[in-house]
């Protein structure tokens, strides 16, 4: 999402998204509050979901794919007894069941739903089918038949049973897992039907609720703006490279860093620092110079090559980079 006017600001804001607005609407609102030019989010939360919504400004948007691929953690409440068109409490009732599983029955089905599984997405999802969004087709009375998709679910833990009708779970998962589908599948595996009634994301990659601000905390003070002095941001942003902290780090010299920034490969055998023995077995390296992250590189065929470089001029100067 971009604006024609605004400031060039760079970094991550972690928002504790409230119930109601869409993720896109929250990005638009925050972009205006920060008076920024460009922003995007690191993973959609449904309007009826709350919690950790990472928002990238400026050059931090180049690291969004690494947040999208990162491990996430959720807490949700599964309501037994009714399946719904949307697999959450917003939809219309499809089927009912009087069965209420015991704690033991619930725990018994969870191992089969973990690991690398095939998951059928909710009909009301943003997936494209023949060039149209699945939720648009469903709203038009033509719900698509969505095929199962690979998903990785690391763990599912039954946290509590507030009553016989509900169960609270904590889930850790990889990219592209639909919690609404998981709730539906847990109920079906228990021999009943159900839907999500509460959903909250508590962690997304390196970001969790301890980093998050509520939208009410973000008030831009434009009274400090002058012709010669920029006004402060509502809250400080996290560095763009914060999104990459889960990727293994590799320290290189300034000369090696300049070569990588300029698109030149560096021979692994010639790296001056401590070179791990398994460099080519690691998909990506977070390359640093003097403790500063300069970008991501891949080791292959005896060479280290740049995959995506970040704020290069911060460490080597505009002049050096311009004359690679």
TrEMBL record:
Highest taxon listed in the record's lineage: Bacteria
Entry keyword Isomerase: yes
Single Gene Ontology MF annotation: tRNA pseudouridine(55) synthase activity
Domain Pseudouridine synthase II N-terminal: 32-179
Residue ranges annotated for the tRNA pseudouridylate synthase B C-terminal domain, each copy included: 180-220
E.C. code: 5.4.99.25
Gene3D superfamilies named among the record's database cross-references: Pseudouridine synthase
Active site: residue positions: 46 (nucleophile)
Keyword annotations of the record: Isomerase, tRNA processing
InterPro entries linked: PsdUridine_synth_cat_dom_sf (IPR020103), PsdUridine_synth_N (IPR002501), tRNA_psdUridine_synth_TruB (IPR014780), TruB_C (IPR032819)
Reactions performed catalytically: uridine(55) in tRNA = pseudouridine(55) in tRNA
Database matches in SUPFAM superfamilies: Pseudouridine synthase (SSF55120)
Function comment: Responsible for synthesis of pseudouridine from uracil-55 in the psi GC loop of transfer RNAs.
UniProt similarity note: Belongs to the pseudouridine synthase TruB family. Type 1 subfamily.
Protein name: tRNA pseudouridine synthase B
Organism, scientific name: Bombella pollinis
Encoding gene, per UniProt annotation: truB
């Amino acid at each position: 999402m971009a604006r024609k006017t605004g400031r060039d600001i760079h970094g991550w804001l972690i928002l504790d998204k409230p119930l109601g607005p869409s993720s896109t609407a929250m990005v638009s609102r925050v972009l205006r509050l920060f008076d920024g030019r460009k922003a995007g989010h690191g993973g959609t939360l449904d309007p009826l979901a709350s919690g950790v919504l990472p928002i990238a400004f400026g050059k931090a948007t180049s690291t969004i794919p690494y947040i999208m691929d990162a491990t996430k953690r959720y807490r949700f409440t599964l309501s037994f007894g009714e399946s719904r068109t949307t697999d959450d409490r917003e939809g219309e009732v499809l089927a009912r069941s009087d069965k209420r599983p015991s704690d033991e029955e619930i725990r018994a089905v969870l191992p089969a739903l973990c690991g690398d599984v095939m998951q059928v997405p909710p009909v009301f999802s943003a997936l494209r089918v023949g060039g149209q969004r699945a939720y648009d087709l469903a709203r038009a009375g033509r719900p698509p038949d969505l095929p199962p998709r690979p998903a990785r679910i690391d763990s599912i833990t039954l946290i509590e049973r507030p009553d016989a009708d509900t169960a609270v779970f904590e889930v850790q998962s990889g990219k592209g897992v639909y919690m609404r589908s998981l709730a539906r599948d847990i109920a079906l595996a228990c021999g009943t039907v159900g839907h999500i009634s509460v959903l909250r994301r508590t962690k997304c990659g390196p970001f969790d609720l301890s980093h998050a601000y509520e939208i009410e905390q973000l008030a831009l003070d434009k009274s400090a703006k002058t012709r010669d002095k920029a006004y402060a941001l509502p809250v400080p942003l996290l560095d763009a490279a914060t999104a990459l902290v889960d990727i293994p780090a590799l320290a290189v010299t300034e000369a090696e860093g300049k070569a990588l920034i300029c698109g030149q490969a560096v021979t692994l055998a010639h790296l001056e620092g401590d070179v791990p023995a398994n460099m080519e077995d690691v998909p990506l390296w977070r390359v640093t110079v003097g403790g500063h992250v300069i970008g991501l590189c891949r080791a292959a065929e005896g060479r280290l090559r740049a995959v995506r470089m970040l704020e290069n001029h911060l460490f080597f100067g505009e002049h050096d980079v311009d004359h690679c």
